[in-house]
UniProtKB/TrEMBL annotation:
Keywords: Decarboxylase, Lyase, Purine metabolism. Pathway: Purine metabolism; urate degradation; (S)-allantoin from urate: step 3/3. It comes from Kitasatospora cinereorecta. This is 2-oxo-4-hydroxy-4-carboxy-5-ureidoimidazoline decarboxylase. Its EC number is 4.1.1.97. GO terms for molecular function: 2-oxo-4-hydroxy-4-carboxy-5-ureidoimidazoline decarboxylase activity. The lineage of its organism: Bacteria, Bacillati, Actinomycetota, Actinomycetes, Kitasatosporales. InterPro entries: OHCU_decarboxylase, OHCU_decarboxylase-2, OHCU_decarboxylase_sf.
């Protein structure tokens, strides 16, 4: 009986172009994808998640912008994008007034910080995302950038785990 490589082994041994394509589906920052790819092979899942954390910690301002560009506005998942729709499932069924408040708060946040409000939306309701947005709005740009970095790491961890579990 031949052993089929598990998802981690397949990822670790993928050719460079295939690996980059897969990693860019997790996070749209080429800098992040290059840093994670350079850390292979990974001995186990925890090593890959550690590579994500290390890559996130090293991202430049431009790398963070690249990473955020791959995310839909909270309250408006990308139509037809299963990942975006799954991650923002908490907005489904929210009443119109709450969604309107979320859109207004998003617009104010984007005007202040110059990018979408980014939060790990998995498991959160529209109301909790709105509360977090309002809580974070008073931050200065440097503080908010570090929070965004942490939220991106959480999102990437979820996406990496999902990739490894589905394969």
């Amino acid at each position: 009986m031949t052993k089929h490589p598990d998802a981690l082994d397949a990822l670790a041994t993928a050719d460079a172009a295939e690996l980059q394509e897969t990693l860019l589906e997790i996070c749209s920052s080429p800098g992040w994808a290059a840093a994670v790819a350079a850390s292979r092979p990974w001995s186990d899942r925890d090593a890959l998640l550690a590579a994500n954390a290390a890559a996130m910690a090293s991202l430049t301002v431009q790398d963070l912008a690249d990473a955020m560009a791959g995310h839909a506005r909270i309250g408006t998942p990308k139509t037809g994008d299963a990942t975006s729709e799954r991650e923002q499932a908490g907005i489904q069924g929210a009443d119109t007034a709450l969604l309107d408040e979320l859109h207004e708060a998003n617009a104010a946040y984007e005007a202040k910080f110059g990018h979408v409000f980014l939060i790990c939306a998995t498991g959160r309701t529209a109301a909790t995302m709105l509360a977090s947005l309002r809580e974070r709005y008073p931050h200065d740009a440097a503080t908010e950038a570090e929070i965004v970095r942490g939220e991106l790491r959480k999102i990437n961890d979820i996406r990496i785990n999902r990739l490894l579990d589905e394969a």
